[in-house]
Amino acid sequence: MLVTNGSPIMSSANSSGNPWLNDQEHRKLHSHILTIEEESGVDGLVNALKELVIHSTQGKSDKDGKKTRSFLKTALDPTYSSQPTGVEWVAQSLVKNLESIFGITPQRTRAIKEALSLPFSQKRVLMRGLVERLLGEHTLVNDRTNTFEAVMLILGNLGPDQQDLADEVTQPLLKLYESDFKKPFINYVGHNFRTADGSFNSINFPDVGKARSNYVRSVVSQAPVNANLPPPHVVFERLLKRPEGQFTPHKSGINMFLFYLAIIITHDIFYTDPKDPKRNLTTSYLDLSSLYGYNRKDQESIRQMKNGLLKNDQWFDKRLVIQPPGVAALLVIFSRNHNYVAEKLLAINENGRFSFGPGKPLATEQDLDEELFQTARLINTGCFSNVVVHDYIRTILGTSQSSDFFLDPFKMPAYPVYGNQVSIEFNIIYRWHAAIGKQDEDWLNTVMNTLGPSLRYQMGHAVPAPAEVVVEQRQQQPGKPGDGDPNGTDQGTFDALLPLFNEHFVHATEEELEKGLPVAGAHRDVKTGVFDNADLAKLLRRGYDQVASDLGNGLATPAALAPIEIAGIMQARNLRCCYFNEFRKFLKLVPMGTFEDFSEKVEVQQALKELYGTPDKVELYAGLMVERTKITGLRLPYTMGRAILSDAVNLLRNDRINTQEMTPQNLTNWGHEFIQGEADQHGRVFPKLIQLHLVQPGNLPAFTQEELNNLFVVPSSQ
Ligand code: HEM
Ligand SMILES: [Ca+2]
């Protein structure tokens, strides 16, 4: 409906984002035109036009710019074009000032002269065309005003001596039409779902971000080699190790629950191949890959292969079994969410799209399973990304989970041409072992002491020097593109550990183990394989109630992690990572000039001096861990805190599936609405997931509403 109250441009749908004005606003703006004319005459209008040009070209929109734009929008309205006010002034001003507005070229000067010699009615139409084009960059064009056609008519009737004017008006149009379609093309029909191994996220560069790819290098080291690097165990002892009996609680009261989520995120994007430290066995996208696995074979091992369902409370990655058990409990929420979503999709069966048989959209029951599985997976990863944006990043920044402000990586339209692949630097930046809370440190000590050498072997696997790395040539059997390694991910070392782990920490029966991976402190129903909800809630509460450690300044990493940290230091050296100051310069941060700049702990400053001699020789790994911390939010060491945000934003925005495929058509209306989160929770979906999937005895919620509002801060600090 384009005509309301005799005003053809207007629409009353302004509140829904339609940039055109409603009738009342329109009248207000018309009087605004008159005011501008009255107050500042032609000069005011010309200035307004100049502003418009500046705003259209620079994309700024301050208050004045908005006023100008609205005012010019009004100028486009033919309702007023019969009046000698407003439009007429604008027309004359625009044409007269083409020169100063658009800059001068000889052709343009001729064009302006030609324009000025046109009859006024034609000048006005041309003006409208120009204004529409300028506005069109930011607002929608109302094609029913027929401006375009009118301009074409005028141009068509111009004589050969007015060719400059015609060119001046039409050439930019060609550019406009051409740029309607962004190149390279990134969205091909039929690539709506994630592949099992993460490939084809970028169709043009299908291997980017695929499981089993090498890490990317962000910074090439150009500095002279430090030929006197200290032995890695000395680096750990002198700079990283938390002294026995010492614990500094996190100054913002951040709890371990936040770090359980961080561990799920790091396992999602980092899985260094124990046989080759250059290689990452997981996908570089935030796609819940520790839940779904890293290739088709992994994925099928945890699927029921019926109705899109996962095996109850199951996930793929066994690395999570030896983490604090709250981590697995958290991942189980997403496992449950997958099945909840798959069941919901089938029950709603929007437009019959999940029906199979003759004449139905799907041919067989297997097709139904696949379609439901992939759609549910898409929705589940959408929920995960909601949690990362609304709960996780907000905590990192220190903005409340219960506020409407959040750094939305999707606010600006993303155009992910290249996909994303994580870097070795990002891997190191994300080793937040210093944050481990007291209770989890105790747990870690017990696990290390009990599992002893076998675990130590697994954790601190010897990292071979680059020359020794044998690049494994797995046989690539023909499979579907995107299915990945046909042999599945080898987690044999964990299989070997599991019996001992179970015996000491879980005490699950054979029947329970047959149903799925063990979680210390939780038991599965032997018939259904479903964990006891109260057990899971208890494990999450252990994270919620447990304050994390301060993470900066060095000397904060639990001693039990020594073999893991030493392996990390060696990995960074062998992969030729840049020096710490080089990394800071890459991020446009001032390099550290003195050792006092690094850490506030005097003994760390002294140790740095003794181990490295000069700040420029400090290696990336050590430098990141010993730095002073930011003063709000997660209080990460400065460089880490800066880098983590670039990495997180890149991770989310360079994911085609996250940015282009999260549509109602792909997810169904219900699924699309689900991942938007709850309006009364400021768009968060996490509280709802906890409420839905962790119902406690007596139908009570696992966390109260108040707790849900601030999940990542220990209650005593709130
Ligand atoms: C009690 C808690 C934790 C335990 C027991 C633990 C254990 C481990 C182990 C065993 C490894 C070495 C894996 C291997 O060599 O294959 C590792 C690596 C790593 N950890 Fe932790 N971790 C804990 C907490 C965290 C936290 C809070 C973070 C950060 C959010 C984190 C980030 C990493 C990263 C990025 C790696 C390197 C992963 C790779 O390259 O494969 N960890 N951790
Ligand atoms: Ca992943």
TrEMBL record:
Protein name according to UniProt: Heme peroxidase
Keywords, ordered alphabetically: Dioxygenase, Heme, Iron, Metal-binding, Oxidoreductase
InterPro entries hit by this protein: Haem_peroxidase_animal (IPR019791), Haem_peroxidase_sf (IPR010255), Haem_peroxidase_sf_animal (IPR037120), Oxylipin_biosynth_metab (IPR050783)
Name of the encoding gene: ABSGL_00225.1 scaffold 367
Cross-referenced PROSITE patterns: PEROXIDASE_3
GO molecular function: dioxygenase activity; heme binding; metal ion binding; peroxidase activity
Residue span of region Disordered: 1-23, 471-493
Species per Swiss-Prot/TrEMBL record: Absidia glauca
Biased composition (Polar residues): 1-21
Binding locations of heme b: 433
Domain of life: Eukaryota
An annotated GO BP: response to oxidative stress
